[in-house]
Design goal:
There is one protein chain. This protein has helices at about 20-30, 50-60, 70-85, 95-105, 120-135, 160-165, 185-190, 205-215, 225, 230-245, 260-270; strands at about 5-15, 35-40, 65-70, 90, 150-155, 175, 195-200, 250. It has about 270 residues and is α/β, with parallel strands linked by helices. It has a four-stranded parallel β-sheet with strand order 2-1-3-4, with helices on both faces. The model has no long low-confidence stretch (mean pLDDT about 90).
Length: about 270
């Protein structure tokens, strides 16, 4: 019998987009399977006027408070009000900033949103995202050699979401579907720059995901072969043979999250050079 979950309020206050804070909060909450966080996200809080309604909301729904506020005055207000309310709160960045200051022997600039500055790395990520969207599902095969990574795999092996995740890290990623009996683009076999990786999963996993996809299709869609396990096994056999023939590494995504698959691909990149 499945145990019922305990719910708690998780308040996330940020003077920027809140992405760093959300990631930290979810990473911590994931370690407590019996509890479910009810997230309240307050981005772009940069003055007292914006902060006061947030503190009132916390008072009305007490829980854990995490914040990334570089302004000392505002962070002191949060600490004081949380103590008065009897609510636990933690500055997620402050201990890390203190450690950096101690080691580097220099004070931090305390600049809001410093990690989101529009520098060369930022524009590289935008370029990678544009490239990846243009080269999704086998599109524009003529310039595949411009990619950093090319993902290949049969339908429902998480090629597109993994490509987008990698692109968000500045890695230009294309993905090409493997279809039983259909030759891959010629450019794929002649590409010398990209790391080419095959994605696979178990037959059961692919059948399950494909079944869910069929449920959203129109009545005219014929999906018998699409979800047939024998057919899927043949597709996977064909995909493995293609990768073996070309000496392309294979990653099984059955029990991997998108993030874990992407990390495995990134780890392969230095080895491919």
């Amino acid at each position: 019998m499945e145990s019922t979950k305990n719910y708690f309020h998780l308040h996330l206050i940020s003077d920027s987009t809140g992405e760093t804070l959300i990631a930290a909060g979810r990473a911590a909450a994931a370690q407590f399977q019996s509890s479910q966080a009810l997230e309240h996200v307050y981005p772009l809080i940069r003055n007292r006027k914006q902060l006061m309604p947030v503190l009132d909301a916390i008072d009305g729904a007490p829980g854990i408070v995490l914040y990334t506020i570089v302004d000392r005055e505002l962070s002191d207000i949060i600490d004081q009000r949380c103590r008065e309310m009897g609510v636990p709160c933690v500055s997620v960045l402050e201990p890390v900033i203190d450690l950096f200051q101690s080691y580097l022997g220099a004070p931090s600039r305390r600049r809001v949103g410093a990690q989101h500055v529009m520098n060369a790395e930022y524009f590289a990520r935008i370029e990678a995202l544009n490239f990846t969207m243009d080269h999704d599902d086998g599109q524009l095969p003529a310039d595949l050699d411009e990619a950093d990574v090319i993902l290949i795999g049969i339908s429902r092996t998480s090629k597109t979401p993994t490509s987008i995740y990698l692109a968000n890290r500045g890695i230009k990623t294309a993905n090409v579907p493997i279809v039983l009996g259909v030759s891959l683009p010629e450019r794929l076999s002649t590409a010398t720059k990209p790391l080419i990786v095959g994605l696979i999963a178990t037959t059961d996993r692919i059948a399950q995901v494909r079944q869910n996809r069929i449920l959203g299709q129109t009545q005219e869609f014929r999906g018998d072969d699409y979800i047939d396990r024998a057919q899927i096994s043949e597709e996977l056999k064909y995909a493995r043979a293609l990768c073996a023939r070309n000496n392309w590494p294979i990653i099984d995504v059955t029990r991997r999250s998108i993030e874990e698959t992407a990390a495995a691909i990134v780890a392969l990149r230095p080895k491919s050079r």
